[in-house]
Amino acid sequence: MKKITPILVFSLLICFIISAEARLSQFAGATDADVITFRVGQSKAASHPVSLGIDKFAELVEEKSNGKIIIETYHDGLIGDDREVIESTQRGSIAFASSSTPNMTSFTNYFTAWDLPYIFENKEEVYKAIDGKPGDIVRDEMEKSGFKVIFFPDYGFRQIVNNRHPVKEPSDLEGMKVRTTNSRIEQADFEAFGANPTPIAWSEVFTALQQGTVDGEGNSYSLLWDSKHQEVLSYATEVNYNYSSDIVVMNKEKFEALTDEQQDIIMESGQEAMEWQREVANKREAEAKQQFIDFGIEVYEPTEEEMLQWKQASEGVWDEYVREGYAEPEYVDIILETLGKTREDIFSE
């Protein structure tokens, strides 16, 4: 009889363990090797409705894939600001990113049309455009830059807030330094209102307000509150001068590398997350407005006559930017046709 050496015993033990793990994996479902993990980065606070929508998307993907696709969410600019995460996604360094659409105009000037003052006057118009032909055109265009559009979280209408004095009509902004995004349209809006537009990165706005680098900004109630900007603001004017959607994109190559089933899971989850998030966003915006009031911020709602002043003051922005190479006239017409209105309907009494 051959002598059983320690080496032989050890080898047999290893074989037994490997065999046992293989059998167990048949009953345990997906192994680590079966799981795909992606990252999504964006800059908004984790409590913001856009962030909640992205969390919901990740939750739905994990549920529909039975845990085989995991999406790790990074909010608060943890892995980069809007521009950084979008560029990282385009390169494929991360799989997903989210940004407000004004910061996406470098990829397609169709978003420039979305920025036109008062092209969207209520949420119903926003959703009709995004879910219809105007949204489909943007989806196709973004693929040319290497992105697959997953869904459009509801960001909200921008209001004008400041820490200098009450603002009721455009002339009250005369000479005021107002922070804007990099959107040329938004900068032109504030020039038309008589203010001095000052583009500043979102991460720097609180300090800029605190130190007097700027006197005000334009943003949604929910984002302002969740970012604690109420601490450096005193007045708000509800003029809805601009609607900003967010956009969640995936690196196109990574998306196309997935199986048809996995792609369906991603897209279905995006659609369901968007529908869920819209309800959350609208409810949260109303709550945040009340929080502003309770905090002591003076919120002013213009009369119909005053709202017409705001609209007519900004009409010149259309004259300047609705042209080829900027807000494409043909695309603007498609939006207006989809909404069933004309430019005259927006700016006339």
TrEMBL record:
UniProt entry keywords in alphabetical sequence: Signal, Transport
Q: InterPro entries given for it?
A: DctP_fam, TRAP_DctP, TRAP_DctP_sf
Gene3D superfamilies according to UniProt: Bacterial extracellular solute-binding protein, family 7
A GO CC term assigned to this protein in UniProt = outer membrane-bounded periplasmic space
Tell me the Pfam families matching this sequence. DctP
The lineage's top-level taxon is: Bacteria
GO biological process terms on file: transmembrane transport
**Which family does the record claim for this protein?**
Belongs to the bacterial solute-binding protein 7 family.
- State the name under which the record lists this protein: C4-dicarboxylate ABC transporter
